Amino acid sequence: MDWDQARIFLSVARNGQLLAAARHLHLDHATVSRRVNALEASLRVKLFERRTTGAMLTSAGEKFLHHAERMETAMLASQSEFAGTDVAVSGTVRIGAPDGFGAFFLAAHMASLMQRHPDLLIQLAPLPRTFSLAKREADLAVTIDRPEHGRLAVLKLSDYSLSLYASRAFIAQHGTPLTPAAIAPLRVVSYIGDLLFSRQLNFFDDQALPARARFECASVAGQLEAIKAGVGIGFVHDYIGVREQELVRILPACSVMRSYWLTIHDDIKDLARVRAVADSISEAPSRASTLMVRAD
């Protein structure tokens, strides 16, 4: 069987669209369509139902998916074996991470890795969402929920804390709330409820804090800027809050603790470039001068 056709099939199956698969593979739409048609002709089955909304796997397509994934595993294993004989670490590794950890912590700790391996291309996607390793949306993913299913290698990176912060200007105008009840008349900054990618981000409800007036934002960066501008009080990662001079930490008893997990698909965990990146990510929290957990 032609591996090139199989990899195109996998991309269409994972993206749900021929056009999206073409973009992912850096091919034109006509080429992807032609290769899928050729694969279906060679197998004498219909693998996809083509609709205006995308390409849906047929029952035969679902069965073939398992065979194609086994081919992919074999190809990755071969790549790993030969890559292991090469001293140089090169190629592309994509990291999916929550925007707080990715943008405000991990990005700054990639310099030494890039210096050691100049032929390595790191793609960091710090986004407020989860990443599917099965669909190859990323090679490694940092999550705040420990994955329970799938063929994944999972490593706990670190615990981290978040505390309530307000700007000095906000405190000057409204005073410092000394009890949780004192938050009730004040505006808070939080996530958008129906866009939460994890229930663990529902900090105000978890702490049973009275939060009626809200400014809601889906990203950590947006929330941070709003809090700094005096829009309201909000939870901030302590490894971010400690370096923001205009912020004041309030009600330390209301702090929350969460954890970061590093996940890698079993098929690629032994690739030299993936191992190098995984090792660098796992070492970053312990090397950091800024504490992930605020003890004071």
Question: How would you describe what is shown here?
Answer:
This protein has three domains: 3-83, Arc Repressor Mutant, subunit A (Orthogonal Bundle), CATH 1.10.10.10; 91-158 and 259-287, D-Maltodextrin-Binding Protein, domain 2; 160-257, Periplasmic binding protein-like II (D-Maltodextrin-Binding Protein, domain 2, 3-Layer(aba) Sandwich). The relative contact order is 0.15. The strands form two sheets. Strands 3, 4, 5, 6, 7, 8, 9, 10 and 11 form a nine-stranded mixed sheet that branches. A two-stranded antiparallel ribbon has the order 1-2. The model has no long low-confidence stretch (mean pLDDT 89). The protein has helices at residues 3-15, 18-25, 29-43, 59-83, 99-106, 111-116, 168-174, 203-206, 220-228, 238-241, 272-287, and strands at 48-51, 54-57, 91-97, 120-126, 140-143, 152-167, 187-190, 213-216, 233-237, 247-250, 256-265. Helix 1 (3-15) packs across helix 2 (18-25), helix 1 (3-15) packs across helix 4 and helix 2 (18-25) packs across helix 3. It has eleven helices and eleven strands. It has 296 residues and is of the alpha/beta class. The radius of gyration is 23 Å and the shape is elongated. The N and C termini lie far apart (61 Å).
